[in-house]
Amino acid sequence: MQKLLLREPNLQIFALVPIPSRPQAVRTRGRDFLQVITQSLSAKFHIPIIPILGYSKKVKDQSGLNSEERWNNLNDSLVVKDRTLAGKAQGVLLVDDLVTTGATLLAAEKALNQAGIRAIGAVTACVAQPLRYGSGRAPF
Fold first, then answer.
1. In a domain, 140, yes or no
2. Domain range holding 62?
3. How many helices and strands in the chain, by DSSP H and E?
4. Rounded Cα distance, 18 and 37, in Å
5. How many CA atoms are closer than 13 Å to the CA of 61, on its beta-carbon side?
6. pLDDT per residue over 83-104, tens digit each?
7. Residue 2 burial by CB count (10 A; 0-12/13-18/19+): exposed, middle or buried?
8. What does DSSP assign to residue 67?
9. Which residues form the Phosphoribosyltransferase domain (predicted)?
10. How many domains in the chain?
11. What is the mean pLDDT of residues 21-35?
12. In a domain, 139, yes or no
């Protein structure tokens, strides 16, 4: 993110919008790592966190799904749960822990756009190698 801000010094980021973690995932991991990442970014760059996204339906754990299954799993699953920013917040930055196919980020962008909120980009902690062999699992 620091490189982005150095490259684009006039970039106006209104807020950080984290992708919500599923409660089951937080229980399994023992904590919400995305919350830690987002709070760290907020503190370092003095950008407020606005956790306005939520799930409109139950979604499966993405880790065992192939690309197509991930897209179908997340289709219309994210919604803006707090509409007080609708039409007002321009230039929010999505924050996610891992991007594999981009399905989650696109679902989040779609939900924000429908609420009149413009996402200008995303920051992720990790980028996975593209899924291969259609199974979503590594071939080893």
1. no
2. 2-127
3. 5, 5
4. 9
5. 9
6. 777 776 678 999 998 887 788 8
7. exposed
8. H
9. 39-126
10. 1
11. 79
12. no
Q: Minimal CA–CA distance to 110: which of 87, 136, 82, 77? A: 77
Cα distances (angstroms) measured from residue 1 to each of 106, 125, 132: 19, 10, 28
| Rounded CA separation 123/104 (Å) | 13
pLDDT at 82 over 90: no
Tell me which residue has tokens 């413009």: 118
Over residues 44-55, the pLDDT tens digits come to 989 999 999 988
Q: Which two tokens stand for residue 15?
A: 């807020």
| pLDDT of 116 over the 80 cut | yes
Evaluate whether residue 15 is within a structural domain.
Answer: yes
Residues 82 and 96: their CA atoms lie apart, in Å, by: 19
Contact 134, 64 (CB under 8 A): no
Q: In terms of pLDDT, which residue wins out, 133 or 87?
A: 87
CATH (domain of 74): 3.40.50.2020
